[in-house]
Amino acid sequence: MQQGKKNVFSTDLCILILIAVACVYMFCASIPLASEARLFPQVISGVTFVFTIYAIGKQVIKSQAADTVSEPGGQAPRRYNHLVLIAVALLYVVLLEPIGFILCTVALFLAIPVTLGNRNFLVLILVSVISTIVFYLVFKKGFYVNLPSGILPFF
Q: Which of 16, 87, 9 is nearest to 51 (CA)?
């Protein structure tokens, strides 16, 4: 195995950088809008940008600190979590309208940590339900955004 500089640019890091660039673009693109119309995209892009920068920093620190463990063939093990996460996000977008915001978001908030390896299901369920209710109230009551009710007509 060749010792030397480690490559910190993984697929995850490249995706995070693209997300950060997209956030900056969305923030800048919303500037010419009226003050009421630009609030939502600027808040979402700003918060997403902050969390993305945090994730980039965490990813860089993790890649520098990790000792790469190789398989017997000399190749590092490959994981396809990023493809599963993209599939889950696409499934969320497709099913949001017919199933509804509440159920799809709880499922999304459960699927992402499970895909990334979290197995504490009691905590996952509590965090998913509470987070979904908070997001629902923020969007519905704070931003006055109509969310798809889907199969739950009382929302």
A: 16
Compute CA distances 102 → 31, 48, 85, 87, 93, whole Å: 31, 21, 19, 19, 13
Q: Which amino acid is at 20?
A: A
Rounded Cα distance, 48 and 19, in Å: 8
**Is 0.90 topped by the overall pTM?**
no
- Contact between residue 150 and residue 104 where contact means Cβ atoms under 8 Å apart: yes
pLDDT digits (tens, 9 = 90+) for 91-134: 998 999 999 999 999 999 999 898 888 889 999 999 999 999 99
Nearest CA among 109, 18, 17, 118 for reference residue 59: 17
State the amino acid at position 154 in one-letter form: F
The kind and range of the H/E element at 56 are helix 35-65
